[in-house]
Amino acid sequence: xxxxxxxxxxxxxxxxxxxxxxxxxxxxxxxxxxxxxxxxxxxxxxxxxxxxxxxxxxxxxxxxxxxxxxxxxxxxxxxxxxxxxxxxxxxxxxxxxxxxxxxxxxxxxxxxxxxxxxxxx
Length: 121
Hints:
By secondary structure, the protein is mainly alpha-helical. It is built from 5 helices and 2 strands; from the N terminus they run βααβααα.
């Protein structure tokens, strides 16, 4: 990427929560998830990237995002099986004027494409 990765508080929460969930999974089964040490390093790396400007938190109007997400839900959820957070992330990107959207999820990719975002492979 030639510019910083833009993220919102929603994405940051989902990312950090996913890491914490993996620590819980690892505690139950050492072959799964991440150790606390690994998780702490991932979170420290995230903070370092934000501090260096590699990742930049951007504000957004949550009410406007929720209105847009509702529209996408009404239009596409039944057809595409889109999950709540997937819809919220796409709606946030559209609200913020993004042109490109990064995802590894096929259904989220389809929704982003429907919304007019370019999704690199």
